[in-house]
Amino acid sequence: MYFESLTNTNRLGRAAMLAALIGASACTDRAPLAPAVNASPNAAPGAVADGLASDERGAVGGVFVATNDASANAVIAFSRAADGTLTSLGTFGTGGRGVGGTADPLASQFALTLSPDRQYLFAVNAGSNDVTAFRVTSAGLQFLARVASGGVRPVSVAASAHTLYVLNAGDNTIGIFAWNGDGTVEPLGVRALSAGAAGGAAIRLSRNGRTLTVTERESNTIDGFAVDANGALSAPLTTPSTGAGPFGFDYALGGELIVSDAGTGATTSYTQSLDGTIALLDGPASTEGQGAPCWVVVTGDGRFAYVANAGGSSISGFAIGQRGQLTLLTPGGRTGDLGTGAQPLDLDLSRDSRFLYVLENGTGKVGAFAVQPNGTLVHLADTPGLTASAGFMGLAAF
């Protein structure tokens, strides 16, 4: 069966949780909403390539990129060596569909996300309105389950140890799911975004798992939620964005939100209370002309934030002060130069924050940088294996 049977004890716990739950640049282009489909989420996944890696190769991590293919979405997996180099493991079908396109069709961050222990990977299927769970193995990915997202056009997903939150941009909802490592993914409920919210771009949990945030680029708002011990969400508390077009974001070490302002060409930091309330700390801090800053990732120690600029083919780095102050690391904003036509659309850090990986839509490659102690970046060799301007969306690394 698609959903495995639960014990009576688990049913009581899930019932209680369900009751609580119900109480002009690439990154700003709008893609048409995908139509709802009647296909069952039980459909078998696409063909899975044989794994090519082994522990003998010395792999210490991985990088994953989603194809967003309109007929059969898939994830391309790479193993990561200690020196940051990547080796292809193959392509692994999600069993669902993307929406296709050429550049940033989902207009989102976190179309792929890893579980906190990095043993599981979750992928949204925006064209079939569902989400896929994989187990991460030395050979690549093992398909576990696919479940309806609880809404229309899922574009971003967040994961705690036992709960998934899926942002449905088509109907401004969050689908909430319980999951565990045996492949069971159980829908628990749906939470609506704030009234008037539009253009949901990213969803993410705080580092301590007690708050959750959604950025909404079209309504220029940011929704904050409190997360209780069972994973249930409070009603949303909405805050007007200081900059225009809030898009990607990440949490810093003290719980600060570092948010890209795609419409302003800047980055802004906010503080968030335990009830989800969001308040300005600093910014907008300009990327100094690097066009379309859209995707953000923060180092594990919370000292630096990196923003991928789709229009500038660059990465802008910021130092994060103790009170959330943002200081551009490099005059002119080009902390990392990807080269003409790279068109970065997403990025992530290795689990030790020594390496930064970037989805280069324009060239069909995975870009890589070595992160220096002062936050500056050294460009490493790109890794081929993607298809240029094919609508790939989502990159996750560990």
CATH architecture: 7 Propeller
Number of helices: 1
Proportion of residues in extended strands: 35-45%
Q: Could you give the count of β-strands?
A: 30
State Rg.
19 Å
Mean pLDDT across every amino acid position = 88
> Termini, distance in Å?
32 Å
CATH topology: Methylamine Dehydrogenase, Chain H
Text of the CATH class? Mainly Beta
| Main sheet overview | 5 strands, antiparallel
What labels would you give this structure?
44% strand, 4% helix, 5-stranded antiparallel sheet, 398 residues, single chain, globular, 1 helix, mainly beta, disordered N terminus, Methylamine Dehydrogenase, Chain H
Protein topology:
Elements: H1 8-22, E1 61-66, E2 74-80, E3 86-93, E4 112-114, E5 120-125, E6 130-137, E7 140-148, E8 154-159, E9 163-168, E10 173-179, E11 185-192, E12 200-205, E13 211-216, E14 221-226, E15 237-240, E16 246-251, E17 257-261, E18 266-272, E19 278-286, E20 293-298, E21 304-309, E22 314-320, E23 326-328, E24 336-337, E25 344-349, E26 355-360, E27 365-371, E28 377-379, E29 383-384, E30 395-397
Antiparallel strand pairs: 1-2, 1-30, 2-3, 4-5, 5-6, 6-7, 8-9, 9-10, 10-11, 12-13, 13-14, 14-15, 16-17, 17-18, 18-19, 20-21, 21-22, 22-23, 22-24, 25-26, 26-27, 27-28, 27-29
